[in-house]
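Two folds, back to back.
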Amino acid sequence: MSPFKGQTGLKRILNAASYSLDGLRAAFLGEAAFRQLVLLNLVLIPSAFVLDVSRGERALMVAVCLLALIVELLNSAIEAAIDRISLERHPLSKNAKDMGSAAQFVALGMIASVWAVILLG
């Protein structure tokens, strides 16, 4: 059993929220790609509420934007873990980082395609 898993109840929830905020802060301060996605979301999400689309379409437009942020957080976590293990170049480390990058590429493509399908009909 992990010594970090000892808390239960409200204390665990408060700790988890604090760790999550720490992660968001670390991503925002340390990852340019995350800051760029936040900026993109600050433009796209309010735009989704101005456009004449159905509630379902609006929800989908917002969801794909938020999904890209989630993917970037996971990609950054993978990169940090790989770098923590070793800064030495290794084919498996490259694969892990490239796959995280590919996941983000797919997420960005999903934003473009969902928005295009909805807006262009």
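---
second:
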Amino acid sequence: MPSRPAADDAVRSPIRALHQETRAVHVAAAELVGCRPLSVPLYQTSSFAFDDPAALAEAMSGPDGAFVYTRRGNPTVRALENTVAALEGGAAALATASGMGAISSVLLSLLRSGDHVIAQRCLYGGTFALFGELAERFGIEVSHVGGQDPDEVRRALRPRSRVLYLETIANPMTQVCDLPALIDVGRAHGLISVVDNSFASPLLCRPLEHGADVVVHSTTKYLGGHSDVLGGVAVFATEEQHLATWSRAVELGASADPFAAWLTIRGLQTLPLRMRAHCANAEFLAHRLAAHPAVRAVHWPGLSDHPDHLVAKRLLAGYGGVLAFDLAGGRGAGQMFISSVELASLAVSLGGVETLVLHPASTSHRELDEVSLRAAGIGPGTVRVAVGLEHRDDLWRDFEQALARCA
């Protein structure tokens, strides 16, 4: 049997001289000449190889150079970031492993021990819990305000106020924040405004156009749109803020997975069509629920009696696919309704093609005590509905039979 060539000889030899083990390892990607893929390719790789040591060293300097390591950047992830940045009208974006990854990366890049945050009173439960953790561990104080009165923000200001945190459409009671009025106050006093736009999507509202500095999304929701991906993204008005948050996200390991980014890109391509259908179905259900005797109140910004209807009409291009309603029978009725639906599913999250229901007081907002629940407007019989894309008559038949059981 002939002896194996030395390692240096094998490396220098033409491909026909390589051993089978080496050939199996070194699979070359096909080069595209005169064509391009219609779909964004999935770069499912952890690292990228270089021919030039100086080029590798240069690539390590920041997020805008050549790709080095997927925790720092990836072509598929970058395609998602660039698309969402364009949709929101931002300078740059940062994709993360989850919506809370985006929120945490942004807040931890902005805040220091002893800082003060002014936050909207009705917030996603995970965000509310994060503020509690920041207060306990780092002494970051939080004052909560409503979403309409600029003077309330002025009264909450302190010498170490640093961040104004808002939601375009609040979870779960669909309050619509007067973004321009509140952000103007924050900017006048040096606050950085962060807006969670997950419920609206860039199709209904673009907070950067109203003066926000950072916009965050759970891409798990409407941007992905198919209940099959976990992700988040933060969009920045300036490159400087993007770089600061990118550095913190890389340190935290909050970076997006390429396959999750690829799935989100696929969902984004139908976002305009889906959002129109979500909003139309929500409008139909909101009016039907408002007329039902078992329902005490319906919370959807498109209804004329919604407290924030005029603000929503001024700021939003549509009223959203999420609504909440209060059942006259209280907590027992709420539990009965979510247990009785047959077409809709009892599940957390939102933004997928299927309709989901949940009882906020015992699920998404379980971190809030009774006082905080009342302050947020969440009652014991409140049910949140993330309206899907089913035929509206089928949805109403399901809701009607569930409501009958509540009675």
